[in-house]
Structure formats: structure tokens, C-alpha cells
Amino acid sequence: MPKFHYRGRTGAGQIREGTVEAVSVSAAADEVFDRGITPIEVRPAAAGGGSLDAFIRQLSERAVTLDELVTFTRQFRALLRAGVPVVRALRGLGQNTANARLGRTLEEVAQGLESGQTLFDAMSRHPKTFPRLLLAMIRVGEESGQLEESLERMAASLDQERTTRERIKAALRYPTFVMIAIIAALVVINLFVIPPFADLFDGMGTDLPAMTALLIGFSEGFVEYWQWLFGGALVVGLGVRASIGTDEGRLRWDYLKLRLPGVGSIMRRALLARFARTFSMAVRSGVPLLQAMDSVAEATDNAHIARGIRDLRTGIERGEGLYQVAERSGLFTPLVLQMLAVGEETGQVADMMDQVAEFYEREVEEDLKKLSSYIEPFVIGFIGVLVLILALGIFMPMWQMGAAAM
């Protein structure tokens, strides 16, 4: 019997990996479910490492962009709505796409469907192509029998994410250019400007002001150890990236992102809007509440928020109300809690969550338009402080020379 490698989460949100024997990927996923683990990835054990040719091919292929994902999702929904079989639709989209990786991936997904896998199982074997939010929405759509609606909502969500990224890039473009210019200026100043002044001040034979001594000391250290400084920065950057790749590192990183001044609040409201929209769709589709929690947690695409949502299961399994466990979690804003309470009392949780999503989506859109105006004062203030330090460090000894000469 074939062996399949699985990776999934327990009810407490812990990652588990292992191997099971089953006749198909779908059967392997059922076996993992029976063990109390929600599978994230199930794949044939023999395909774990992959060949060298496949590895080289993947490196040479262009990554799938967000625009291409939006196009694929909309076209896939249109074909399904027209009555085209899923396998035929996937193969047609794969043959017509200009992205080689996406075309190859869709062909492999179609082959997986023909071998008896579900669409979610087949697509989840390609996490580098399909984001977790898309996989979560596919899963909700399959479980509820409303795949077309899931794809429609997914296309709208991806389109909104594309707009959000473009606005964030536009808002950060000016501060990024300024910071690059500042770093370049600091390098030039420390290598070519301050050393001649240091020689001049040494010839004066007088005590230097503390600010000047600090600048000269920093310049001398930079000139002597600049290779180590850049090397250390590179090692730290790679170390942080590797840490974020682990489960615990990603959990800490996602938590810190929500605490960033200004930007963190926008991210939090955007995630709450995504949670509300996905939860509403799952409730409308009749997905069991505990099962919906897992799908919604994956859809948030934030490890800290996802763990908190999964923790809600414990209280719900004890028979507590959704509002009670949500209030105790500390994840949700008063608006979300109030809407949950009203939704539980009236039996209209889905409608209330849709209103929460619409409210926060409008807020996030308005804040993104103003993001550059929030950042610019900090950048200008930083430049001002830097210029003041340089001016005082260089000109204070000259002022002392002038005062002594008088």
C-alpha cells in the first residue's frame, strides 16, 4: 500500500508530521483526520525530495504573481459556472496561461483529481503556487458545495489584496528612497568627509567636543570594520529570514507585525475583515462551526491570529457561546464582539460578520490613502536630527577655534 507524508495541526494548533499508508491522498487525509489532526499537506512519501531536474526546473520558472492568481480564479469560476468539468477547466487554463509554473501546476492538479483526490488535496500539494487563503476558501467551497461562490469571493479578496499592496508600495516609495539616500550619504560621509576633518582637528591639539569625538570614533570604526559591519548585517538578515520560516519564528513575527506603530493597526483591521468575510461565508454555507474555525484560521494568513481562532474551539467544544470565547481570547475589537453578540441573539451571525467586514474594509482603504502622510513626518524628523548631529559635530570645533582666536 502506498505511503503518504502528512503535515497538519492538532486541535491545540501544534504542528505534527508523519507517514500513513492509504490507497489515495484523500484516504490518507481521512486517516490523518481520524488521528485528530487537521492536514495542511498530504503528499506521496516518495515525492518528498524530488529529482535534481525538477529542482532546477522550479528555480528557472517565474513565480506566480498576484495578478495571475486573480486572473486564474476569475476564469476558473467562469468556466465552472458555464458547466465545464473541473478537470477540463484546469487543463484549459493551464494550457492558455503564459506562466510555465502555473501551467505545470494546474496540469498536476488535474492529474490529482483524476486519481481520486479532492480539489483541496490536489492544490494543497503546491503551497508555493497557491496561497493559504485560496486553499482555505477552496476547502470551504468544497465542504459547503458552493465552490463557485468561494472562487468569486476569493477573486474579490485577491483583487483587494493587490490594491492594498499597490497602495502600501506607493506610500512607502518616498520613505524608502529617502532612507536609501541617507544610508548612501552616511557611507560617503564616514569614508571621505569626516577623515580629513579628523586630521585637521588632530593638528589643532585641543580637546574636541563630545559630539565631534563621537563622530570621529564612529567614522574610524566604520573605515576599519566596514566589511564586518556589512557581513554582520547580511548574516542577521539571513538569520531572521530563516527564523521566520519556522513555526515559532513566524508566530513571533506575525505578532510583532500587529504591534508596529500605525501600520500594525491597519494590518489588524484588514485581518479582522478577512476573518469576518470568511466566517460569514462558512456559516452561510452550513459548514459545522468547529470545522469552519480551522478553515477560517488558515484564511487569516497570520499565525498569531490563526492560533487564537483555533483556541476558540476549546470553549465551543465545552458548550460556551461564540461571543464568550471570542471575548476571552482578546483577539477581537469591541465592534466584532458586539456584532457577534447581536448575531447570536438574532441568529444572524453571517449578516453581522458581513457588516463588520464592510466597515473594516472601508476603514483600511481610507487609512492606506493617508499612510504616506503618517510616515513623512517621522522621515523628515529623522533627517533633521541626523543633519543637526553632523553639523554640530563638524562645526563646533571650528566655532571654538574662532572664539579662541578672538
3D architecture notes:
- It comes from Halorhodospira halophila (strain DSM 244 / SL1).
- Residues 72-195, 275-397 form the Type II secretion system protein GspF domain.
- One of its GO terms (biological process) is protein secretion by the type II secretion system.
- InterPro entries: GspF/PilC, T2SS_GspF_dom, T2SS_GspF_sf.
- The protein has 406 residues and is mainly alpha-helical.
- It has 3 domains: 3-49; 65-130, Type II secretion system (T2SS), domain F (Receptor-associated Protein, Up-down Bundle); 175-405, Receptor-associated Protein, CATH 1.20.81.
- It has helices spanning 25-34, 52-60, 66-81, 86-96, 100-114, 119-124, 132-144, 147-204, 210-244, 247-257, 263-284, 289-300, 303-317, 322-329, 334-346, 349-369, 371-405; strands at 3-10, 15-21, 37-44.
- A 3-stranded antiparallel beta sheet has the order 2-1-3, with helices on one face.
- CATH architecture name of the largest domain: Up-down Bundle
Beta strands, count: 3
Instruction: Identify the strand order in the major beta sheet.
Output: 2-1-3
Looking at the structure, the CATH topology of the largest domain is Receptor-associated Protein
* H/E series: EEHEHHHHHHHHHHHHHHHH
Mean pLDDT across the residues is: 80
Helical stretch tally: 17
Portion of residues within helices: over 70%
Q: Report the sheet with the most strands, covering strand number, pairing sense and barrel closure.
A: 3 strands, antiparallel
Described by its quaternary structure, the protein is: single chain
Strand content: 5-15%
CATH homologous superfamily designation of the largest domain: Type II secretion system (T2SS), domain F
Q: Termini, distance in Å?
A: 97 Å
CATH class of the largest domain: Mainly Alpha
Overall 3D shape: elongated
Computed over alpha carbons, the radius of gyration is 28 Å
Please identify the structural class as seen in this structure.
Answer: mainly alpha
Keywords: Cell inner membrane, Cell membrane, Membrane, Transmembrane, Transmembrane helix
Pfam family, one: T2SSF
Main location: membrane
Subcellular location: Cell inner membrane
